[in-house]
Backbone:
């Protein structure tokens, strides 16, 4: 009996270690780096994120930014990403450590700048064109709304892309991005361990 308990403890520990060691990790999901306080905005490549757009049409700003969003606090922390125009502006990150065939949940919060007309259109893409989330309108009421969508990894490395696909000058804000793997590795190892114990 004691041997069985020890085996279960070891199997559980190995499962937890392996799931942590090989987990795909999204970094700087709150866009807190680098510090944009006091600046109009930051664009280009910064701290794991690539902000792609014409001049300063994609980047990161601090909350309550006088130019972009004077009355909008961040969904998490003090900063967030912005996408200004629907001409291919995007915020993206390359992530390694995926397990092929495993299910992951991508979670994010999005808000739209208060402007006349309809809100901006956001889509979330994996690598070249695989849509994690089909294009959807972000209401332009400067209210954060959280979305959580599951997808299956088809490679050990993927590029996650937030893309503005709507019309010009409908600014979209993105914050509080997280990548959450389903605990399949732990469950699989635990089942293997229990099957081994039953055979003894």
Residues:
């Amino acid at each position: 009996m004691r041997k069985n308990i020890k085996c279960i403890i070891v199997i559980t520990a190995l499962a937890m270690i392996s799931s942590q060691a090989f987990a795909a990790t999204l970094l700087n999901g709150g866009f807190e780096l680098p510090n944009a306080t006091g600046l109009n905005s930051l664009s280009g490549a910064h701290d794991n994120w690539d902000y792609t757009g014409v001049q300063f049409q994609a980047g990161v700003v601090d909350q309550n930014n006088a130019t972009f969003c004077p009355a909008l606090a961040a969904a998490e922390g003090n900063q967030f990403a912005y996408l200004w125009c629907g001409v291919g502006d995007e915020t993206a990150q390359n992530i390694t450590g995926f397990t092929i065939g495993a299910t992951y949940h991508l979670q994010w919060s999005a808000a739209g700048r208060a402007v006349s007309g309809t809100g901006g259109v956001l889509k979330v893409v994996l690598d070249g064109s695989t849509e994690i989330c089909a294009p959807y309108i972000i209401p332009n009421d400067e209210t954060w709304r959280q979305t959580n969508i599951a997808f299956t990894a088809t490679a050990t490395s993927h590029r996650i892309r937030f893309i503005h696909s709507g019309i010009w000058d409908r600014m979209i804000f993105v914050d509080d991005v997280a990548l959450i793997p389903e605990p399949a590795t732990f469950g699989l190892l635990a089942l293997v361990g229990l099957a081994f114990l039953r055979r003894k």
Q: What stands out?
A: Helices lie at 2-21, 184-199.
